[in-house]
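Final report, section 2: Outcomes. Of the targets proposed, SnoaL-like domain-containing protein is the one most frequently requested by collaborating groups, and we therefore present its record in full.
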Amino acid sequence: MREPPPVAEHFLAAVCTPDFRALARCLDPSVRLRGLFPGDAVVQVGSRAVADRFNVWIGGWGSIGVLRSQAWTVGDRLAIAYRLSLRDGRDAAIEIEHQLYCEVAGDRILAIDLLGTGPARPAGR
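The predicted structure is given below as C-alpha cells.
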C-alpha cells in the first residue's frame, strides 16, 4: 500500500481544526464534491463552494473533538475518514462520520465522493 499524498494530512488538519480557508487550499479550483447522507444528496463544484459546504456541516460548533481520523490509498484513490464529536455552547453534542474517496493530482484534490452519517447522539447521552 502506498503512503497517502501530503494533501491528505493537510485536508484532515483543516477539517479537524476547523480551518476552511486551509481546506479550500487543498482543493483544485474546479473540484467536484458528491455527497450522500441519510435523506439527502449534495453536489458542489469549485473550491470555495466545497469549503463552504464543509463549513455548513462542521462549522459553527463551540468545539470539535476528533474521535478518529485517518487517510490511506485504495488503488488510484485517496481515502480519508474521520469521526467528530461536535459540541455547542450548551454542551449538547452530536457525532458525525465522513468517508471520502478522492481523486488527487499533485497537491490538490480534484474530486470527492463522500458518504456521511446523519447526526447521532453519542452513546450515554
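The domain at 6-116 is CATH 3.10.450.50 (Nuclear Transport Factor 2; Chain: A,).
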